[in-house]
Amino acid sequence: MGHIYIKDIQFGPESKIEDGVLYVSxxxxxxxxxxxxxxxxxxxxxxxxxxxxxxxxxxxVIEPRVKVEGRGGIFPGVVAKxxxxxxxxxxxxxxxxxxxxxxxxxxxxxxxxxTGPGADYTPFSKTLNLVMVCEPVEGIEPHDYEKAVRLAGxxxxxxxxxxxxxxxxxxxxxxxxxxxxEGLEKYPDLPRVAYVQMLQSQGLLHDTYVYGVDAKKxxxxxxxxxxxxxxxxxxxxxxxxxxxxPTYVHLNNPVVHDLFEQHxxxxxxxxxxxxxxxxxxxxxxxxxxxxxxxxxxxxxxGVIVSQEGFGNPDTDLILNCKKIEAEGVKTVIITDEYAGxxxxxxxxxxxxxxxxxxxxxxxxxxxxxxxxxxxxxxxLDYVNKIAGASEETLHEDGSLEVxxxxxxxxxxxxxxxxxxxx
Length: 422
Hints:
alpha/beta; 6-stranded mixed β-sheet; 7 helices; 24 strands; 19% helix; 31% strand; globular
């Protein structure tokens, strides 16, 4: 992975990266976005850390990347042709993101505040954000609009990433991926650890895509952890903003990166196992059975399991935990909590004694006051309707009283916290 650090974003007559500054041609970017025929118009803006700017409703956040060596391209099965990725060399534009916004699709979109108390709860207050506000054509179905905005965001991120193809990275990181046999031979005395990632897949507007395939159509399977760095997993869901992993988080999954930091030192990072979250009990039982089976077949000593969403997926989380533990594999789960505004309610919808090692992202029901900011990118028209808000959210002075769950990435399950496997 080659990291190219972006120090600023500016609009200019042509798109280029020069001396750490990303210059963006508005016309060129709009042309890329408007390749999606169901988008009527696109407006662009820039939000910088510390500015008095609020972005809402946020749909996705994407880090631009470009594949410079190796098989496949960025976002395989979505933008690039379907090919197995995760090897070779990829460049990422660090310190910036493409943010898609626009009219609300469901009630579960998000807010990014670039300053103030809200900025403390979203990692995207710290990135330079190129914001695309997309307006749909008349008469479009909400899920078709969501798909069009999602694809427009990916295409723009790929367009911007291509600007870095001939640059020299500021920093390079190398990630070792071993076969099962190679790992056993090279690290015979280290505990064998894997990451079980639960992907949101509970239906329309609650989707995650793996190589372009809706995750509810997959059975649990194994990835090389480097595949996600090329965009093998992307977001397509509109669950509560704090609970959905935007594409940026999939690309930079901190569980994967933290496990790689310990690989060859304190543990052998064997693989990433992906599974889905289902609506019906029979599907939950099948997926958790397969996940536990894979953990046993790989002779794992420990796993970290992360969840996306809350409520119904708590059952998937606990099923995975107790079945993996029953196979003799030590399990740590990562989740946020919904314990009510007073913190006194049951924080998960399901529980089991096997879930005795938990990393929490905090209580998503906690109330916070977001002061009025000078500029809104997008619109406040829907701010009373998003999950975590209410009819009393928008105060007369322009401030917002909301639950933490409205902030994009606020308590997402991967948390951007440092983790330790046990």
